[in-house]
Design goal:
261 residues; alpha/beta; Rossmann fold; 46% helix; binds NADP nicotinamide-adenine-dinucleotide phosphate
């Protein structure tokens, strides 16, 4: 069997109903995995399922807020009871309560909710999935993080600090889980075209629009990556093609990080 063939594997993609998570879910389904997508809204779930079912009959949606441990544990439990196990977890769901904002302009409540709404939704699904992955004897975890974790970005102090936490968790968990043959990797992103976030950023003027317009000018290839290009890297890391890759955060940014970070 080709190592990127995912037939027989079960994948859960949190934040998999839209944007990057959705495209990763689609890529995993195209490679043969049975895929469950998660998100908060049933409407987004229905839309995702109708698109995914064109690729595979083995797709499902489980609603749940990733920042609520009991809710995401139920998502994992229902996925496992429907499919019989779990091999791949992609943690991509975390909306964040506030976009890029200069630190001096943030209220204490916004600082606190910035960490709470971005960090816990990323790591709770990983923790809740661990017993099911261990029961399989091997597994693959992929988290989505931000390049602001590596490169100080105006307005993204809290977002970057959360992202740096994910980069460190990727290494620390890879080390802890190696004994169970569970790999942990991350993809770091700056900006991705053809996502709802892109439309939101560029549909109105303001701080975020100016920040990311500057970033686009700096992409060495002259454009931001597409969700499809991110998804192919994510699917590679999740597959057995990357069996010897763990603890790594791979920036998918067309070389924006040539500067050394
Ligand atoms: N796009 C980029 O280039 C980029 C750059 C840096 C970081 N990121 C991070 O990568 C992740 C995905 O980005 P994206 O652009 O694909 O975002 P998106 O288009 O907004 O999609 C987010 C997905 O996650 C779900 N979701 C959001 N919060 C959730 C929560 N708390 N619990 C469960 N599901 C949740 C959404 O569905 P519902 O709304 O129905 O819940 C949707 O399916 C985000 O965390 C984002 O901050 C993205």
């Amino acid at each position: 069997m080709q190592p990127d063939n995912l037939e027989g594997k079960v994948a859960l993609v949190t934040g998999g109903t839209r944007g990057i998570g959705f495209r990763i879910a689609e890529a995993l389904a195209e490679k043969g995995a049975r895929v469950t997508v998660n998100g908060r809204s049933a409407e987004h779930g229905e839309e995702a399922l109708s698109r995914l079912s064109r690729v595979s009959p083995h797709v499902a949606f489980e609603a749940g807020e990733c920042g609520d441990y009991a809710a995401i544990a139920r998502v994992v439990e229902r996925t496992v009871s429907r499919t019989g196990g779990l091999d791949i977890v992609v943690s991509a769901g975390a909306a964040g309560t506030l976009g890029p904002t200069p630190f001096a302009e943030m209220t204490p409540e916004q600082i606190e909710s910035g960490f709470r709404s971005r960090f816990f939704p990323r790591i709770y699904p990983v923790h809740a999935s661990l017993p099911a992955l261990r029961a399989r004897g091997a597994g693959s975890i992929l988290m989505v993080t931000t390049d602001a974790a590596r490169h100080p970005t105006p307005g993204e102090s809290v977002i970057g600090a959360v992202g740096a936490g994910i980069v460190l968790m990727t290494k620390a968990l890879a080390r802890e889980f190696a004994r169970w043959h569970i790999r942990v990797n991350a993809v770091a992103l700056t900006l991705t075209s053809d996502t709802p976030g892109w439309d939101r950023i560029f549909s109105k003027p303001g701080f975020e629009n100016r920040l990311f317009s500057k970033a686009i000018e700096r992409f060495p290839g002259g454009r931001a990556p597409t969700a499809e290009e991110v998804a192919q890297v994510a699917a590679f890391l999740a597959s057995d093609l990357a069996l010897q890759v763990t603890g790594q955060t791979v920036s998918v940014n067309g070389g924006l990080s040539f500067g050394g970070w």
